[in-house]
Amino acid sequence: MNPPMSAYGQPPQGWPQQGVGQAAAAAPSPLPPVNGAPQNLPNQFQNMSLGGPPFKHEQAPFPNQPMVGRPPSGAPPVAPGGGIPGGFPQQQQQPGQPPLQNGPPPVGQPPGMAARPPVAPNYGLPNGHQQQQPNQPGMPPNPMVPGQPPMQYAPPQPMGGPPRPGQPMPAMGQQPNYPPQPYQQQQQQPPQQFAPPPLQAQPQFPPQQQQPYPGQPGMPPMPAPPGQYAPGGPGMQQPPMSGPGMPPMPNAAPGGYPMQPGQMPPQMQQGGAPPHMLPPHGRGYNQPGPQGYGQMPGQQGPHYPPAPAPPAQNRLDPDSMPNPIQVMSENQRSCGGEFATNAAGLVPPLATTKFITQDQGNSGPRYMRSSMYNVPVNTDMMKQSAVPFALIVSPFARAAEKELAPPIVNFGELGPIRCIRCKAYMCPFMQFIDGGRRFQCLLCKATTEVPAEYFQHLDHTGQRMDKYERPELVLGTYEFVATKDYCRNNTPPKPPAMVFVIDVSYNNVKSGLVHLLCAEIKNIISHLPVDEGQERTSMKVGFITYNSSVHFYNCKSSLAQPQMMVVGDVQEMFMPLLDGFLVDPEESSVVIDALMQQIPKMFGDTRETETILLPALQAGLEALKASDCAGKLYVFHSSLPTAEAPGKLKARDDRKLLGTDKEKTVLTPQSTVYNMLGQECVGAGVSVDLFIMNNSYIDLATIGQVSRLTGGEIYKYTYFQADIDGQRLVNDLIKNISRPIAFDTVMRVRTSTGIRPTDFFGHFFMSNTTDMEIASVDCDKSVAIEIKHDDKLTDENVFIQVALLFTSCSGQRRLRVLNLSLKTCNQLADLFRSCDLDTTILFFAKQGLFKLLENNPKAIKDSLITRAAQILACYRKNCASPTSAGQLILPECMKLLPLYISCLLKNDAFSGGSDLTLDDRSYVIYFVQSMDLLTSVRYFYPRLMAVHDVNVDDSNVPAAIRCTADKMMEDGAYILENGIHMFMWLGLGLSPEFTQSVFGAQCTQQIDTDRTGLPVFDNPLSKRVRGIVDSIQNEKHRCMRLTLVKQRDKLESVLRHFLVEDRGMSDGSASYVDFLCHMHKEIRTLLS
Where is the Sec23/Sec24 helical domain (predicted)? Predict the structure, then answer.
């Protein structure tokens, strides 16, 4: 319901005002001091980096320990036998291991935002108040939600299923376990005694011959198995660094921005924080000798006699590196309140920060984010910076609690008011002139006559008298009711429908899927979405089953029993039912009940193992086309379609090609028929969600195209068993069917002169170069759009408008409009102060996966590393004060760029090799291509949290810790989740009180890790831990199977795969510290 118009005219208390469409007032220079911040400090103190002083790590030698490797950087002490802490044994899943199990996660909504007083739905502010500009550059930095790190690397394991038989296992002797090591004494040392990162504290071991360790395609030179250095020439200088937060070297100029004329002082830039500086080599460094890089210390090469081991080396403390947990918590503290969108170029809070958007003329960041909020005025400056200009758009993102839903504006027969030239819709960027009789479009500068029905006089400031009564003149996000000119065939649409298409072949009957769906279908369809202002849903439902033929069901409410009609000739699919296929779920409730009782009986004894798929999809499409409505197909499929029928596929399961130049041959469709069907579905406004219950290869790369092109989603439940995975499937279906959704959509991006959208990435179809056609868009999907210059920009603001034409779930044709204004800049320092790293990383991911299917993987990964190095080198060269060449200086808003690029390169979507199935690799590629920003942050950098020491009286999810084995103790229990997988790791030293209360076991060894979910006990600790798991599940739009992993268990190597700051145990991928060194070397190469 829209608020009464009078509400638009009264501003919220305390919110000053600025006329929308005018240039934002310049920030005062200097800005007022931040409360509690020291003022007037000497420059060298203002430019100090975060963190504490460097530490020197000393470690006693273990003369009798044979060495093949060493623990990852900073690993905690290791108990005999390995396992976290101290690294995992190189054990992998055994063939025949029972499936991982997961408990029924309850369904619910994400936890509400921090309680705030209700805000009146005011759309603007009266004239005469001084404008307030929150979160300007120069104000405190923006933090993220504490405890919700970005996400990362998926494990070499079938998504949603048990470990794969046949997974290669390294010889057990390759990774000896270490005895318990005492904690090392740490002493504070002056910065110049801080050693370069890769030179880690080394125990002295007898020389040992080692096997070469294969690097990962596209990755930087990797450290060899634990304890080996990256390959390189003798005497090569390691890129030296220190923790962000080390003071600059003596006599070195402090880091920061050079003071440009009219520029703010460094301490006031980028939220008051200086750039991060990592110190160079200096006196006191233990430099490597002439020994080659690819060898163990004490080893001179294959043809030389062993040399005595060198003394222990200092190493970089990983805790001094920039880390996302700290960045998110700081942003939550400084930006966790209200974010008013009342000026151009305001950098929003991080995606993980809980905040309330006050829409005052620009769309909130949940709907649209830019990778930069100060846009370079010309192409040369843009190319020099190497930062992409990209948008991430989630047009139907969920509004937070206490945020205003976009209001609906109805102009009746007049229809939406538009610019006569560029066709932009009326928005706050339009300026009324000539007494209100015309308006000038700020996108294309054309002037348009105002229709008589829309005319209103202007006040003394040039603003319309009714401005604050009209959402489209003061808000950034709103909707127009469309006229019949915006409808197919100039006919208003019917309400969309949901069609359930169920594979009733032997596999789905045996696994219990058919019985489960029929038992739960009434519960599922009771959650159909309801449009605003409606009491009950307008959507209809239909049912199709198939094996080697297709079966339609007539569920008309006037029938005593449902009727079944079979189409046996699947070569030419047609719709045999003219009436009674799509029904109202309430009116036909009795008939639907009868049908759900009959289907399991009809197919309970089936022996059909060969199935079709394409004809079943065509059947659903034809049914919706015959009813002349848009909608969605929910398809439950179990096996490769090998029956003689259109869409028949052959097995091409050659996982050895993954990670090679030929991987694109198995990651692209083997046939175009599913692409063609997807395009036909888009033309009818029909999207397809695939629920895959496969026990073997199903060629998701091919059949998934129909979901990709229609804006659908893919769910995967490998080795599905109804008793184990049933509740997870039901919860996924309920979350899917009940979420905000739009059908039969067309999206177009319009920009002001000088820039234009050029490339689009996501799940949609484009029949031209400007319009994204999407059969359905829901709140969990996003698209990435790259924008480029086509002319030099003026000093005016940059304007972007995204318009989405769609059919609502009640059958109303509407337009949703999103508006964003950005500033322009001619200084690179201004650009680097306004970047949004989360947006940049998700854009790199979507763009990279698009290119991955056309190029070789190594080239894509190398280009990501090079692009990141170019960004940081440009900042170092143009924005930082002259400092020692050995220092790595990171811009404040991009200090996590090296970590996130490392996470991207490790992620299965980019790097899944032959230890992953082809279908799993395709699955994560589709997942990343359609995911929204918040999901991506938590997917690329998984969330790790301790649960053994929680306060039973607290109800919040525990704060996250860094995603590394260093932070996991043997007496602890930890949850790790990334949106697809959830693990609970149980240390062998876990207290009996915890194991008894939560698992009913005396000790960790007695816990049954094959069980699904957590047992239910009536005690405070059990309730608290189950509550944490439930809260995490409720935050996600799909349920995760909870896998219990005991320390030193064979599944530990799978969990290890997700600890993204550590070195990859199976693929040799670099640790965070080593990757940071490699990035520093790349930057220095570019600068030299």
Answer: 836-937
Q: Is the dihedral of CA 10, 14, 18, 24 positive or negative?
A: negative
Contact 1073, 198 (CB under 8 A): yes
The distance in angstroms from the start CA to the end CA of the chain is 61
- Cα–Cα distance between 973 and 975 in angstroms, integer? 7
Within its chain, how far is the Cα of 687 from the centroid?
A: 22
Helix or strand holding residue 813 (H, E): strand 813-825
The tokens describing 84, both together, are 């976290």
Q: How many CA atoms lie within 13 A of 327 on its CB side?
A: 26
DSSP state of 975: E
Domains of the chain (ranges; CATH) run 408-474 (2.30.30.380), 497-629+631-684 (3.40.50.410), 934-1072 (3.40.20.10)
In whole angstroms, give the CA distance from residue 847 to residue 845.
6
Distance CA(579)–CA(623), nearest Å, equals 10
Phi and psi torsions of 984, nearest 5°: -120, 115
pLDDT at 578: 80
pLDDT at 278: 59
**What is the residue whose two structure tokens read 């199903």?**
698
Distance CA 1080, CA 1087 (A): 10
How far is residue 106's CA from residue 1036's CA, in Å, rounded to a whole number?
11
Here the tokens at position 376 are: 């370079």
Q: Which residues pair with 818 in a beta bridge?
A: 477, 802
Beta bridge partners of 409: 480
Q: Nearest CA to 791 among 182, 171, 376? A: 376
Structure tokens at 606: 């089936």
Does an H or E element contain 750, and which? strand 741-751
Tens digits of per-residue pLDDT, 659-669?
888 888 899 99
